[in-house]
Amino acid sequence: MSDAVDVLVKRLNGLAPKTALVLGSGLGPLAGEVEGAVRIPYAELPGFPRSGVSGHAGELVAGRLSGTPVLMLNGRAHYYEHGNPAAMRPALEILAGFGIEKLLLTNAAGSLDPQMGPGSVMLITDHINFSGTNPLFGEPSDKRFVGLTNAYDAGLRGAIEAAAEKTGTPLYKGVYMWFSGPSFETPAEIRLARIVGATAVGMSTVPEVILARFLGLRVAACSVITNLAAGMTGGELSHQETKDMAPLGGKRLAAIFKAMFAAGADV
Ligand code: HPA
Q: CB of 170 within 8 A of CB of 121?
């Protein structure tokens, strides 16, 4: 057992969540709603990657959400921080080693659909990785040839859709295209993204989905839309806008997750 798994077992004291959430921009406040929360700074988990991005805390929070044991990562490491697509591999290996079976990923994203404006929530049905990199580069085993046909778990997606309906929260569905960041896309890149079938663009999540499937976790992912993508409004994009607008959709997505766990759905 890795040292970090050891720390988790000791600190969680018998709590054995099967579901982990990765809280992207706008979702951080959900960590404050965990009942009986145990908070562990990433610095106390040997090998755990830390994020230096403003708006991203760096702690693991575990407890109950709507009565269901959950584990949350409040803050994640991104590819664009150091150019390492496998930045989240140690974190996900630790979660899998601890017994996590399901991973709910969240992120902030730019929308390619003028109807799906800031504050919207999008369930990711599939992704496009045109980055040229992959978190499994260097993995020597044949397990690296991981299938992604059903990367986004049908059961988890169904539970999220049902919870959205129950709470009356509009839920868009679409394809997330991963751009490396940290610079935003150009208008020409967004036109390309539209042609190849993207609905939203962002700088995270795709490497985590690949790693999670590699580790055998079931995965679902949602975006909170913070802006229309580059060139769609005439204005310039900024990280400040992402941070300012993420809480809008973040509140909606948090309500969906709470309803999902309250329903005791297959999560
Ligand atoms: N592009 C990439 N990442 C993002 C965006 C965007 O427009 N908005 C929030 N994260």
A: yes
